[in-house]
Amino acid sequence: MDSAVQWFANNMPSFLSPEAAIFLVSMVPILELRGGLLLASILKIPMVQASVICIIGNILPIPFILLFIRQIFKWLKKTKIFRPLIEKLEKRAMGKSDKIKKFEFWGLVLFVGVPLPGTGGWTGALIASLLEVDLKKSVPAILLGICMATVIMLIVSYGMLGTIMQ
Known about the structure:
Layout: H1 2-10, H2 18-27, H3 32-42, H4 47-59, H5 62-76, H6 83-95, H7 98-113, H8 121-130, H9 135-165
Helix pairs in contact: 1-3, 2-3, 2-4, 3-4, 3-9, 4-9, 5-8, 7-8, 7-9, 8-9
Transmembrane segments: 21-42, 48-69, 105-127, 139-161
Keywords: Membrane, Transmembrane, Transmembrane helix
Pfam family, one: Sm_multidrug_ex
């Protein structure tokens, strides 16, 4: 992920402001908030401003995933082209779902909140949707997880990493 963020920082389109760039990176699966905050620290965007932009960017796709992904996947699996990709995504997401199945709310909070590869708001919302976790549990759990990931990534991006990169 660090190399993807560094590549984006080096090749950021000239028409994008730094704030727009971190917003977009925060919306992208895999990079999400973690990538947005790393990019913000590289671009020297103030921590509070970066946090707000990255949180909003990371939260924005979540309701759409929770509400519509099962129907979209069902429709895409009917096509020969997308079926293998969708089945792979479902298999990968469900392979990470053990803790969420067992602990539901807190499992989802930790899954989204601990910034490891393959975790985050997107995957957490996908798993919650596929497991049909109630929206009253999944939405607060994902939001709490995103807040937890924000704190961890601020420490990493603006604390330890910020010191190393200067």
